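Async update (no meeting this week)

Hi team, since we skipped the sync, here's where things stand on the single-chain job. The sequence we agreed to prioritize is pasted below, unchanged from the tracker. I ran it this morning and attached the output directly underneath so nobody has to dig for it. Comments welcome in thread, and please keep replies under the output.
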Amino acid sequence: MMNQLKVALIQQSCVADPKANLPTMVKSIEAAAQEGAQLIVLQELHNTLYFPQQEDTAYFEWAETIPGPSTKTLGKLAKRLGVVIVASLFELRAPGLYHNTAVVLERDGTLAGRFRKMHIPDDPGFYEKYYFTPGDLGFIPIQTSVGKLGILICWDQWFPEAARLMALAGAEMLIYPTAIGWNPTDPQDEKQRQLDAWITIQRAHAVANGLPVLVTNRVGFESDPKHPKEGIQFWGNSFVAGVQGEILAQTDDKQPTNLIATVDLNRTKTIRTLWPYLRDRRIENYSGLLQRYLN
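Output:
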């Protein structure tokens, strides 16, 4: 593992033609590598529009196997550029069995591992339970040449238990490919509260676990296929936080961007020594966490 790690978060807008999105990502990855990025993270479901706005069997045609076409393309790219890539795919595991899955391509082009999204939302505009089976691989970091990657996906980012388990399993950073945005009809003050909550919870994971946090979100408006005047305004704001929750770099809510930042992986040891949360955990008193509710 290296100490000073240059990372890139690829914040993009997606278009309706799935064949057009991955080539756009490839160009962004190439540009990030030219800037010296060693680890490049793509947003959630980057090959397509965010299709779970509606329940429609036609979208299952967008799923692909792992290994498959995207991992082949990105694996060759990772090898050519000498970088590690975190991608996010609609996984066809078997007929009738699908996952929202992050994959890691090592810099030699091999598939280093995968993580299947654990927490699956089912809310207006985010009907993911219709498409995705909850992950069954657990909270296990993926070992790479740039460190142990604790990858979680979007809705997973709101759960402190997920971040903690990744940290306890030896993750050296937390990575969140994301697709989240506003209902355009919400008032501005509500939009700001939602965005602030999203940033705050993830910065808190950095603080509570002494780990850097990398968050890549999509940007731009995607209309609801059945109600074209409605949809989601994805809020971008991809960011990198240090181990004390400090913002090292952040995008805005308007533009596709390659966000480049340098993460000091040595600081985990320093800060965990000063703030020894892992030492002082009272694990013998946490059995209630295995209950849905205590009343």
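Quick observations from my side:
The domain at 4-290 is CATH 3.60.110.10 (Nitrilase/N-carbamoyl-D-aminoacid amidohydrolase).
The chain has one domain: 4-290.
Reply here if anything looks off.
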